[in-house]
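Data deposition worksheet. Section B asks for the primary sequence of the deposited chain exactly as it was used as input, without tags or linkers unless they were present during the calculation. Section C holds the resulting structure in token form. Section D is free text for depositor observations; keep each observation to a single sentence. Incomplete worksheets are returned to the depositor.
Section A, Depositor: J.P.
Section B:
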Amino acid sequence: VNKTRPPHSTSPFDRFAEFLTGMFAPRLLIYEKRPRWGPELKRQFLRSDTPVRSVRTLSEAGELIAAGPPSVLIMDLRAGAGECLRFISRSRERGWPVRTLSSSSPATRDLEWVARELGADHFVEENIGGEQMARLCRRYLKQLTAGDVATADSTSPYSLSTPV
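Section C:
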């Protein structure tokens, strides 16, 4: 009987360290009225250690963000533009560890400058694809992992989205 561990096995200590890292690793939260980004980003991050979670309310998102770890939050402005804009402002005032991405439609496009002024990190057009959105989320998750929570990134490799 071979009692050696297969190469993919880890010790209990390694598994515990992995668990702790996962507890404090940035996560991706999605607030939307109709499921679009939630299912797509869960699929895009399937082989990743990044937790992807849809939230029903921005109050729920706020509770999760305040409790930590840092988060990237995608908000579909069609789910309640006023509520989303107030949340962006409140998260900045409270210094929450969150990067916010506002998803827009033609009906909410005019709110881009308001979202920018309130502190949104990125304003995304509706016609961006799932791979592009996942790439954008990964960039912000990487910044959070590096401890960069407060600085909005004003560059974007996406012609279909508008950086904030």
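Section D:
The longest helix spans residues 130-145.
The longest strand covers residues 71-76.
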